[in-house]
Every structure is written in structure tokens, then in C-alpha cells.
């Protein structure tokens, strides 16, 4: 038996979701809906989905049990709330919402209705982060002390024909890219207790470089570079750089440093990648020798976007917590909003939310392509 799924929003990212979910036997995409119903029809025909229409058509579909919310971030909470009101579980793209009030209300609404909310990114369920998580649990690098992450490059206006929304309130590198990095860190370390951040704008306006609007300028509403220090309840610290201003392109950097070694974790925007660690020097002469990297084979599910939704569907059937939960998505949002507030005030900001239990691991034998329901 498969669980019926409906999509609201069929933009560019819907392709990878539809490709993956159509390959998982435990779920079945029944309908796609969009403001642009011609686009919904096109995606339905492209991916073999039997029905298409509006958002309301998706909500009204009697066999849809889970709504995939791929709308723009500004309406994430609104659309997810409508799905909950219609009696559907929700999987939403990141971020869960853009403010604490509407997103916390969404989670309360879901809890009262006995429905689940899942939130991207679900890359933390992939073989890359999960293998790294097991290495940390095994004590490979001893007690984790601090993390360093970096995502820096010159910005999306060099490839995106309409990049203004990525520099508007509710976006910027922090809320657009930050969820991948902070979800990974929370998955590894647990609740963030407080943050302090600094931010800057390279310019007050940017210029579109490609497409029909090339040469047009648009305002920069949020910091285009932000550095965030996170302090975790467990005592660990994280230092994260997110920038759309760097001539040097360097993305996907996640390093965990512990008392007995340092671990390289794959790009948190990917489901797999290189995992390796080094041990500290015992002693050396005038110059330190080159450190030996020890490669770690990946184990676990290799899939793509939609893996978190599949885990949620199976978790409902098995009456267990799912990994990429609404609670996790809300805490990550709270961390990022706290970082915004800290960058504006120059002071530490306490993160009021927490996760009630450690983010659960994914079993090594989790097989997305098995029929389990």
C-alpha cells in the first residue's frame, strides 16, 4: 500500500521531488497544483501524475494524505496551515516559515490535529551526514568541541535572471542557504542555546548580470555576508560564514573538531560526499609532517530530495519520530532569526526554542526503494 501525495507549487525544484517520489514504492503522487495551472498540467504530464489543478484541488483530493509544499517562503506557513486544516500531513521546503509566530502556531495546529509536519532540508538523512554522525558517536574524533562551516561566493545575480528575492527580507545567504548548515549542526550537536552574529552589505544595490533584465539594479535588504557563532547546550561551538560577496568560491565546508581528531563532513546541500578524519600529532621536530587523512566509506541511503518525506510517512506507520521534523525546522528558523537580531544589535541573543530529543539517526539499512507499508 502506498500513501497518496499531492504537490502545491511546481517550480524548478519540483522536478527532483517528483522524480524521486515517483521512484519510492511507499508513496504515490496523485495530483500537482499551482497558481499557474498550465505549469501544473505540464509537470503532471511530464512526470506521469494522474491529476493537476489548483492548490485547492490538491487540498480537496480525498486520497491525498500528505501535501508537499513547494511554494515561495513568504507563504510556506500559510499553505502548510491550510493543508493541516484540510486534514493532511505536510512536508514543506525550507524554511518552515519566516517568523516565529506563524510557524509556532502551525506546529501547535498540527499537534492538536494529530498530524505531522516535516521540513527540508532532508539532506541530513543522506549517507554523507549519517556516516559522519555515526563516526562522531563512535568516538572517532573524541569529544566534539567546535565546528567550522563556510558557504561563500560572489552571489546568485551572476546566473539567476531574477535574483532580487534572494536579497530581500526573508532571504539573503542566511535564510536561503543557512538551513542546510544549521540543520546539519543541530543534527550532530543538538539544541543551540545562544548566538552572536555580525553582518554586512557589500553594496546597497546589486546588478542583474544575465537574462532579459541584465543591467537592471535591485536593492539589498539584508546582510549579504553574515558570520554566526553558535553556542550549543552541550557546550560545543560553531563558527559559520555565509556570503554572497566573496570573489573566492568555497562552498560545502563543514569541519567538526574534537579532542582526538578532526572530521570533514560532506556538503550539507548534498546527500553524499567525502568523509575523512585526521588525528592530532603526537610530536614532531622543527616542522610538522603532512597529516594523514583517513577516508571513511559511506553507508546509508543514497537518494535525493523527498527522502525526508518518505521517512515521515514510514514514521507515521511505525509510530516513531521522523528525522526532519517540524520541531527541528522551527529550531533552525529560530537560530537564524536570532542571528539576524544579533547582527542588528551586536549582542548575544538567546535562542528560546529547543529540540525535545536528539535528532534520531537513520538506520544503515534504510532502503527508499523497498515497499514497507
Automatic annotation (TrEMBL):
<dbReference type="InterPro" id="IPR036291">
    <property type="entry name" value="NAD(P)-bd_dom_sf"/>
</dbReference>
<keyword id="KW-0520">NAD</keyword>
<dbReference type="Pfam" id="PF22725">
    <property type="entry name" value="GFO_IDH_MocA_C3"/>
</dbReference>
<feature type="domain" description="Gfo/Idh/MocA-like oxidoreductase N-terminal">
    <location>
        <begin position="4"/>
        <end position="118"/>
    </location>
</feature>
<dbReference type="Pfam" id="PF01408">
    <property type="entry name" value="GFO_IDH_MocA"/>
</dbReference>
<keyword id="KW-0560">Oxidoreductase</keyword>
<protein>
    <submittedName>
        <fullName>Gfo/Idh/MocA family protein</fullName>
    </submittedName>
</protein>
<dbReference type="InterPro" id="IPR055170">
    <property type="entry name" value="GFO_IDH_MocA-like_dom"/>
</dbReference>
<dbReference type="InterPro" id="IPR050463">
    <property type="entry name" value="Gfo/Idh/MocA_oxidrdct_glycsds"/>
</dbReference>
<feature type="domain" description="GFO/IDH/MocA-like oxidoreductase">
    <location>
        <begin position="129"/>
        <end position="264"/>
    </location>
</feature>
<dbReference type="InterPro" id="IPR000683">
    <property type="entry name" value="Gfo/Idh/MocA-like_OxRdtase_N"/>
</dbReference>
Amino acid at each position: 500500500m502506498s500513501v497518496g501525495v499531492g504537490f502545491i507549487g511546481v517550480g524548478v525544484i519540483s522536478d527532483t521531488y517528483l522524480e524521486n517520489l515517483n521512484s519510492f514504492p511507499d508513496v504515490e503522487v496523485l495530483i500537482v497544483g499551482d497558481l499557474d495551472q498550465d505549469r501544473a498540467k505540464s509537470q503532471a504530464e511530464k512526470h506521469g501524475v494522474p491529476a493537476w489543478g489548483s492548490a485547492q484541488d490538491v487540498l480537496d483530493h480525498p486520497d491525498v494524505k500528505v501535501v508537499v509544499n513547494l511554494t515561495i517562503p513568504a507563504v510556506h506557513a500559510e499553505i502548510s496551515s491550510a493543508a493541516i486544516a484540510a486534514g493532511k500531513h505536510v512536508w514543506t521546503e525550507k524554511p518552515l516559515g519566516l517568523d516565529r509566530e506563524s510557524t509556532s502556531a502551525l506546529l501547535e495546529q498540527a499537534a492538536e490535529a494529530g498530524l505531522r509536519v516535516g521540513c527540508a532540508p532532508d539532506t541530513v538523512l543522506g549517507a554523507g551526514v549519517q556516516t559522519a554522525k555515526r563516526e562522531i558517536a563512535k568516538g572517532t574524533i573524541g569529544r566534539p568541541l567546535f565546528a567550522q562551516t563556510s558557504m561563500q561566493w560572489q552571489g546568485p545575480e551572476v546566473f539567476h535572471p531574477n535574483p532580487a528575492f534572494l536579497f530581500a527580507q526573508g532571504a539573503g545567504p542566511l535564510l536561503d542557504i543557512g538551513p542546510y548548515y544549521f540543520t546539519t549542526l543541530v543534527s550532530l550537536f543538538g539544541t543551540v542555546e545562544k548566538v552572536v552574529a555580525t553582518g554586512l552589505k557589500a553594496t546597497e544595490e546589486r546588478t542583474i548580470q544575465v537574462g532579459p533584465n541584465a543591467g537592471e539594479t535591485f536593492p539589498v535588504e539584508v546582510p549579504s555576508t553574515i558570520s554566526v557563532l553558535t553556542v550549543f547546550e552541550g557546550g560545543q561551538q560553531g563558527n559559520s560564514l555565509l556570503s554572497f560577496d566573496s570573489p573566492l568560491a568555497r562552498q560545502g565546508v563543514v569541519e567538526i573538531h574534537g579532542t582526538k581528531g578532526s572530521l570533514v563532513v560532506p556538503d550539507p546541500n548534498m546527500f553524499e560526499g567525502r568523509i575523512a578524519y585526521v588525528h592530532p600529532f603526537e610530536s614532531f621536530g622543527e616542522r610538522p609532517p603532512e597529516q594523514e587523512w583517513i577516508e571513511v566509506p559511506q553507508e546509508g541511503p543514497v537518494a535525493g530530495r523527498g527522502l525526508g518525506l518518505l521517512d515521515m510517512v514510514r514514521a507515521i506507520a511505525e509510530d516513531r519520530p521522523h528525522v526532519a521534523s517540524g520541531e527541528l525546522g522551527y529550531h533552525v528558523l529560530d537560530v537564524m532569526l536570532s542571528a539576524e537580531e544579533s547582527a542588528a544589535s551586536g549582542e548575544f541573543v538567546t535562542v528560546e526554542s529547543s529540540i525535545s530529543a536528539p535528532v534520531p539517526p537513520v538506520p544503515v539499512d534504510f532502503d527508499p526503494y523497498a515497499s514497507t507499508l
